[in-house]
Design a protein that fits this description.
Blueprint: H1 2-18, E1 20-25, E2 48-53, H2 58-81
Helix pairs in contact: 1-2
Keywords: Membrane, Transmembrane, Transmembrane helix
């Protein structure tokens, strides 16, 4: 339980501090062959994560910092208590 709270809290606080969130970019398949037209070849690209702007307002950043920090504090006290 503590590890889950640490991961969630750290993710929320880092999103608030850096104003960036990961965004999934799907992969690209190569162009089908056999068309007979000489064009530039598109290479296949694997799916990946890119950083995108979170576009948070000041209130949104404050909320994410508060909730994430609270999750980290709860995780700390749960760890101390041995749960």
């Amino acid at each position: 339980m503590s590890l889950v709270l640490i991961v969630v809290g750290a993710a929320l606080v880092s999103a608030a501090l850096f104003n960036k969130v990961p965004r999934y970019v799907p992969g690209r398949l190569p162009a089908p062959r056999g068309s007979g037209v000489a064009t530039a070849r598109r290479t296949a690209a694997p799916p990946r994560l890119r950083w995108a702007s979170a576009r948070l307002t000041e209130q949104g950043r404050a909320l994410l910092t508060t909730v994430g920090g609270s999750a980290l504090i709860v995780a700390f006290f749960l760890t101390l208590s041995g749960l």
